[in-house]
Amino acid sequence: TKRTKVSELLQSTEFDREVLVKGWVRTKRGNKHVNFIAVNDGSTIKNIQVVADPNQISEDTLRLVTTGASISVTGKLVASQGAGQNMEIQASQLEVLGTADPEKYPLQPKKHSFEFLREIAHLRPRTSTFSAVYRMRHAMSFAVHQFFNQKGFVYMHTPIVTGSDAEGAGEMFRVTTLDAKNPPLTEDGSVDFSEDFFGKETNLTVSGQLEGELGALALGDIYTFGPTFRAENSNTTRHLAEFWMIEPEMAFYELSDNMDLAEEFLKYLAKYALDNCADDLEFLENRLLDEEKNKPATERSPMTLREKLQFVVENDFERVSYTDAVEILRNSKPNKKKKFQFPVEGWGTDLQSEHERYLVEKHFNKPVILFDYPKDIKAFYMRMNDDDKTVGAMDILFPGIGEIVGGSQREERLDVLRARMAEMHIPEEEMDWYLDTRRFGSVPHSGFGLGFERLMIFVTGLGNIRDVIPFPRTPGNAMY
Ligand code: ATP
Ligand code: MG
Ligand code: MG
Ligand code: MG
Predict the structure, then answer these.
(1) Which positions are tagged coiled coil (predicted)?
(2) Does pLDDT of 343 surpass 60?
(3) 393 Cα to the center of ligand 4, angstroms
(4) Is 319 helix (H, G, I), strand (E, B) or coil?
(5) Which of 143, 202, 238, 421 has CB 3.0 to 4.6 Å from 272, enough for a Cys bridge?
(6) Which residues pair with 18 in a beta bridge?
(7) ipTM of the predicted structure?
């Protein structure tokens, strides 16, 4: 017999036939007459029940069938009367492939805290919660490619090691082959990067945007989807040092087209999760509901996970300019009596996350697209508006998450772009290749970045970005 995956088996309606299943033991219960073994092989959140009769399977073997052990089972697939399952396997042969000493195996059948599981990130895929998250990561990656493929976008690979810094935020990881303790020096005593591997200073990419623009101004619509690195020293539940970003870049787009695309994309992804990840979503939703029970009623979420996804699918996002948002915040009273101390330095400062949360979770109660930000708090490549004070930037803010998308209309006018770079002290000679796109056949274009892990926080309902990526990299933590 050929091995069948549990996901496939559970679709089956053909009973009383021999099957072969391999997987990991979740639980074993029973008595000296019969054993019930729940087996999971990672293909689905669901387990298959194996019934092992001590007359068929030796006591010595059954003793090794403990939580975490891997087994191979041959037997008859039969309809089951048991609650919560419609089939089970009556084992005729059972082999233990790898034992898991119950005294040492950390994942016993009980609910472990996220904090504990973060300490053993190498074993947490064995839990139901994390297998659900990682299967959904796969499903959502696939959905990203499907969305853009259906729209005729070209998937473009931008460099991981690069000499450019798109954001200018000084959050780059240096890549070098020089001896860090004893680097070659130039005559004036600074590090001589001409001796480095690439003959210049290089770093891990913080965004594929600048290179993506080159693609858009030739292929029309492109997107990148790859790892991105930021040496963020912020220990938040929303930032990683290594995260994945989806960055579409579109020629002949205005800012409103960009917002339309981003909104359509997020709705598509929410619907994709609802339609294709039903079992995993149901499991995660129940786990979250369990946790909510421990909270005071006022702090409990009024919507379940699936209701939140459905809400995004069905409701248009609110679009508000930065200037209008500032007015709303000025006139609001978040704490009944107290007004926001906002903005301390007047119009032109970046919104704090408490302001963003107020707008999204209290004032509008839905996703919000904020646009036309003050130029001084945004990157050099964003298109200057006619007022000379704001640029065509847009951020999408989600309830419970904050910024999920950041995007903008790109400055396509060579003279304006150069003036802006001079103002921000960005050396032109470093960016000559970029300016070529504006020198030759420049067109209006737009793009945005969606942080894949922020999306995963949304679709899984989990509260910490460290729990939606298999190997989280945060300050001081690069185990594995
Ligand atoms: P934030 O304000 O949350 O720090 P940002 O404005 O610095 O984000 P952008 O440069 O606009 O981020 O990047 C685009 C998107 O990438 C963000 O909207 C967010 O979804 C995601 N992102 C940015 N930084 C991180 C990070 N350190 N970890 C995970 N995702 C991130
Ligand atoms: Mg940031
Ligand atoms: Mg931001
Ligand atoms: Mg941003």
Answers:
(1) 274-301
(2) no
(3) 9
(4) strand
(5) 143
(6) 76
(7) 0.99
Atom of ligand 1 nearest to the CA of 407: 11
Domain that holds residue 422: 128-171+206-467
For 352, half-sphere exposure in the C-beta direction (CA atoms, 13 angstrom radius) is 9
Strands 318-321 and 368-374: parallel
Specify the pLDDT at position 85: 82
pLDDT digits (tens, 9 = 90+) for 267-309: 999 999 999 999 999 999 999 999 888 888 888 888 999 999 9
Residues 156 and 103 in one domain: no
Sign, CA torsion 122/124/125/130: negative
Q: What is the pLDDT of residue 345?
A: 58
Same-domain check for residues 277 and 367: yes
Q: Is the peptide bond before 343 cis (omega within 30 degrees of 0)?
A: yes
Among the bound ligands, the one closest to the CA of 238: 1
146 and 12, same structural domain? no
Q: How far apart are CA 239 and CA 169, in angstroms?
A: 15
Environment of ion ligand 4 (residues, CB < 5 A)? 406
> Does residue 206 have its Cβ closer than 6 Å to ligand 1?
no
Output the CA 231–ligand 3 centroid distance in Å: 15
Establish whether residue 171 lines the binding site of ligand 1, counting it when its CB lies within 6 angstroms of any ligand atom. no
Q: Tell me, using a 6 A CB cutoff, whether residue 378 lines ligand 1.
A: no
Same domain, 370 and 415: yes
| C-alpha 449 to ligand 1 mean position (Å) | 8
**Which tokens in the block code for residue 167?**
């954001």
What Rg, from alpha-carbon coordinates, does the chain have? 27
Let me know: does 252 contact 152? Beta carbons within 8 Å: no
Claim: this prediction has a pTM higher than 0.90: yes
The total number of structural domains in the chain stands at 2
**Tally of residues, the chain:** 480
Alpha carbon nearest to ligand 1 atom 27, residue: 239
